[in-house]
């Protein structure tokens, strides 16, 4: 299982997240997650992003 503690977040506490289509593998978007949004994504099984513009 993925351990958040082993990931390298940047100086702002963010990590890039690539979203792909499950069937085709096509890249849909690049977004950023902070620790909280990554925890929510892993716990709830739904993608949750952190908004850099809205903080």
Strand-helix topology:
Layout: E1 15-20, E2 27-33, H1 35-44
Antiparallel strand pairs: 1-2
The class by helix and strand makeup works out as alpha+beta
How many DSSP helices?
1
Supply the CATH class: Alpha Beta
**CATH fold field value:** Ubiquitin-like (UB roll)
What is the strand tally?
Answer: 2
The largest sheet is: 2 strands, antiparallel
Distance between the termini: 29 Å
Beta-strand content estimate: 15-25%
Second-tier CATH architecture? Roll
Detail the poorly predicted runs: none
Radius of gyration: 12 Å
Note down, in words, how this protein is organized.
The chain is an alpha+beta fold. The protein is built from 1 helix and 2 strands. The chain has a two-stranded antiparallel ribbon with strand order 1-2. Strand 1 (15-20) and strand 2 form a beta hairpin. 5% of the residues are buried.
Defining traits:
single chain; 55 residues; Ubiquitin-like (UB roll); two-stranded antiparallel ribbon; 1 helix; 18% helix; 24% strand; globular
Give a concise summary.
The chain has 55 residues and is α+β, with helices and mostly antiparallel strands. It is 18% helix and 24% strand. It has a single domain, classed as Phosphoribosyl-AMP cyclohydrolase (Ubiquitin-like (UB roll)).
């Amino acid at each position: 299982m993925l351990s958040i503690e082993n990931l390298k977040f940047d100086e702002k506490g963010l990590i890039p997240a690539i979203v792909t289509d499950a069937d085709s593998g096509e890249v849909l978007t690049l977004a950023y997650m902070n620790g909280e949004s990554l925890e929510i994504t892993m716990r709830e099984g739904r993608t949750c992003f952190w908004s850099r513009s809205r903080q």
